[in-house]
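Bumping my old thread because nobody answered last time. Still need a sequence for this structure:
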């Protein structure tokens, strides 16, 4: 349940607000002046604050300034029995969410609380989505090794074209990152980047996922669904782990690539589509072709520009840069102070055989960030990193 802090030097006002808000199942805490309230906010995360304007020691306006200077996003509702329009405008300019005059009206208080929580929820959700988009659009390929520089150069050459790309490499090497970078450097970057993990979708649902379906086309098709090919039209469609796609789905993908048209499951109407196709796999598709698991004609359609992403063991010179990148990123994501890593610790990490590649290194750095003190040294690596035998 949400916790609300009430800051007011008049106990009857605090009691009245407490009674109103506790009836609505909110958890209430109190402070008799701005100094105490400021200290309480510094020690605990509150969901909302009610603050009186006229108080001894530290008045409400000074309290509001000090809180907003710290870029605290907590909604603050100012209350006063001595206010006027100028005061109300001043509090809002300083960053208050709302201003309510005394005597407090029950409905006005509850409406303001409800709106503040809804706005704060939307703000947090919006910030989360912005971080998610930033993570996708600013996914820089970290490394200066020869192998990585070749890939970076190749991306810049092929990004401006619509040529299909087949990315190969072991799990955790960063194949999706390469696909994102191609999209971000292309003329399609303002259009959607749609990803499909072919290995994660049951074979009986893959066609519906890729091409969509019409209402009533099968038992659970309660409404029409737009498939990934349509969603990615004029953008980029990333078919991850395409080596795990069923042969029947492969045939339909091949046809879509040949004709730039798809037909929804249960439909009879052809729909024009224009996605740029980037596929990726951790399998050797030529062996899969020999074993009858992958269509050779689809392979040749996809393999216009082959890009192989090396394993981390083949680019250990990039580990120092990757460590510093993950230290900064993970500290920010976890809300922790940025930590340093010693040269001896990095040298020890370079001795490890990284079967899980970049993904495994990221997980290890996250572990070290959480469990270590300010500096991650050789001792911490030996203590917290279990090296494969």
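Sorry it took so long. Here it is:
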């Amino acid at each position: 349940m949400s916790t609300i802090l009430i800051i007011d030097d008049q106990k009857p006002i605090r009691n009245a607000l407490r009674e109103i808000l506790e009836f609505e199942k909110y958890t209430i805490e109190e402070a008799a002046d701005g100094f105490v309230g400021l200290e309480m906010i510094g020690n605990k995360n509150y969901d909302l604050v009610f603050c009186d304007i006229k108080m001894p020691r530290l008045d409400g306006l000074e309290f509001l300034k000090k809180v907003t200077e710290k870029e605290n996003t907590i909604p603050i509702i100012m209350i006063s029995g001595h206010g006027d329009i100028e005061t109300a405008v001043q509090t809002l300019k300083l960053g208050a969410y709302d201003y309510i005059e005394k005597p407090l009206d029950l409905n006005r208080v509850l409406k303001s609380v409800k709106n503040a929580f809804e706005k704060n929820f939307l703000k947090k959700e919006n910030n989360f989505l912005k971080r998610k988009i930033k993570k996708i659009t600013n996914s820089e390929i970290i490394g200066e090794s020869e192998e990585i520089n070749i890939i970076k150069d190749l991306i810049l050459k092929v990004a401006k074209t619509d040529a299909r790309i087949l990315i190969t490499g072991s799990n955790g090497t960063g194949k999706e990152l390469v696909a994102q970078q191609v999209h971000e450097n292309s003329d399609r970057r303002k259009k959607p980047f749609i990803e499909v993990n072919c290995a994660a979708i049951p074979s009986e649902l893959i066609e519906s996922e890729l091409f969509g379906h019409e209402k009533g086309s099968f038992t659970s098709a309660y409404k029409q669904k737009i498939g990934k090919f349509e969603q990615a039209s004029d953008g980029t469609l990333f078919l991850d782990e395409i080596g795990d796609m069923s042969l029947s789905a492969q045939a339909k993908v091949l046809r879509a690539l040949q004709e730039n048209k798809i037909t929804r499951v249960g439909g009879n109407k052809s729909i024009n589509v224009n996605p740029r196709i980037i596929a990726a796999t951790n399998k050797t598709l030529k062996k899969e072709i020999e074993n009858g698991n992958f269509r050779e004609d689809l392979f040749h359609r996809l393999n216009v520009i082959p890009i192989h992403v090396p394993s981390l063991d083949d680019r250990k010179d990039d580990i120092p840069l990757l460590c510093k990148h993950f230290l900064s990123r993970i500290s920010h994501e976890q809300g922790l102070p940025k930590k340093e890593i010693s040269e001896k610790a990095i040298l020890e990490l370079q001795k490890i055989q990284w079967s899980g590649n970049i993904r495994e290194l990221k997980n290890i750095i996250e572990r070290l960030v959480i469990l270590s003190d300010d500096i991650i040294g050789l001792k911490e690596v030996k203590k917290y990193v279990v090296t494969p035998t």
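DSSP finds 16 helices and 16 strands in the chain. Let me know if any region looks off to you.
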